[in-house]
Structure formats: structure tokens, C-alpha cells
Amino acid sequence: MGKVDFRFAIIGNIVEGGYESDVLILTTLLRKLFKENRVKDAIKLFKEIKEIGYTCTNVTFGTMFDGLHKSGNVDKAFKLFQDMKSGNYKLA
């Protein structure tokens, strides 16, 4: 099991157990997933962050935008930017 897989499992246990996680921790995990070129996992985690009800920070969105753009997912990065601009997401 890789380092990110282990961290992902820990975060999953924290959330499933009803314990508080920190959006900063989740943003750091997003960054690591992109660094390991695990774009699908990063997108999945981002969706889960929203579903859980966390209010993302501008750093979270910046991490997603940067990761999507650098991984060649320019259309998804642009869609995220448009969604942010239209107010579909709340910033902390």
C-alpha cells in the first residue's frame, strides 16, 4: 500500500467514524493525489468533500484547478473555474 493509499484510508475512517476532519488535511491529500498522477482519485475525493458538506477554501479550489490543468484536464479545470465564478461553490 502506497503512502497516499494509507492516508486515504485514514481519512476515510475518520469521516466514516463521524470524527471531524480538516479541509486543510483533505486539501493536502488532494495535492498528493495529483502529484502521484491519481487524477480520478483526486476528483473522487473532491466530490466527497463537497458531499460531506465541507466548505472548501480558495486553496482547495486552487489545488484542484492546478492539478486538473497540469494533468491535461483543461476542460475540467475550466468547468471548475466557471462553477466557482457562478457561485455554485461556497468558499470558506
UniProtKB/TrEMBL annotation:
Report keywords, A-Z. Answer: Repeat
Q: Which InterPro entries match?
A: PPR_rpt, TPR-like_helical_dom_sf
Renumbered ranges of PPR repeats: 22-56, 57-91
Q: Which Pfam families match?
A: PPR_2
- Domain of life of the organism encoding this protein: Eukaryota
Gene3D superfamilies per UniProt:
Tetratricopeptide repeat domain
Which family would the database say this protein is a member of? Answer: Belongs to the PPR family. P subfamily.
Which PANTHER family does the annotation name? PENTATRICOPEPTIDE REPEAT-CONTAINING PROTEIN 3, MITOCHONDRIAL (PTHR47941)
Write the protein's name: Pentatricopeptide repeat-containing protein
